[in-house]
């Protein structure tokens, strides 16, 4: 007989476990399926010196919160991994590790059928909690780079010592790219960095972490329905900053003064392996600084309106500008022996055989609820608010879905 559960949660990261906690509290029969191990992405997909970029006090999961001695600090990779695993243990989450879901389909008459590596299973309700970052993205132009140059995705990077001797090219300045470039720079490697369009934010301003100011201002509570950016925010890039060594700004201009080579957007690799670069570096740096300055303006306005006594500090002044923007990069001539591609991920929901996706393959949902009754998503970037895809608000999103699923279960059958 096919195994059946009221609910199946797919994914045992912080999102799936948060969902499991709420289902457990409601006494809902459920199981959490994890293709690998609990919280494995925190170890398998992060570099050795990784830290959170949000303070530890923001790590609040349902029924569980950071209780260490450094609430204003930033947990390292290993500490985050331990935090999530201890959370699973705290309520004996019904996780089955090493069970991959190969396909998810609707059943005639209602509910869902799952084909898994451990056999078939059915459920009345399913919550897909596998996040929004699945397949490492590396552009096809990388295939024209000499095979003598090692190429890895940022999710594979661990430390500089694991790369061949020589200079390193990092492509992308989102959170991972900027922090990996810093990591290599601090290890003494010659870094060449292709800057993208990611914004930046100051770590501290007027006596506090900027995250603390933004939290008090309610920025993390603004729903995507009310946000001026609308649904496009779901595709936006997060600001680069770091929690390393207690937290600090990441200033690419300062890195340039210290010897890091910066470039504009990569546009092509020609037949001889020469990288073609668009002259967008200064524009990218100025745009990132403008975002950081705008956040400071918002904080200033909040402080003034609330009458808060906070120290003042001078505004950032650019410490470096490119004299000339390079339009090409010869990897061999520059001594570059490895490339780290930090250009993001692609979503992969091909195994979800239910018609709930938009034209680009993204789940079509409102706060995680899809048009297919009983099928929800959790842990997506900007699922409802800025904090949805991370620790800040996943608890709130999970509670909302638990209430929604409970409302479905409580309906009387048609005709009764």
Automatic annotation (TrEMBL):
Protein name as annotated: Putative flavoprotein involved in K+ transport
Pfam family, one: Pyr_redox_3
Residue stretches spanning the membrane: none
InterPro entries: Auxin_biosynth/cation_transpt, CHP04046_FMN-dependent, FAD/NAD-bd_sf
GO MF annotations, alphabetized: flavin adenine dinucleotide binding; monooxygenase activity
Keywords of the record: Oxidoreductase
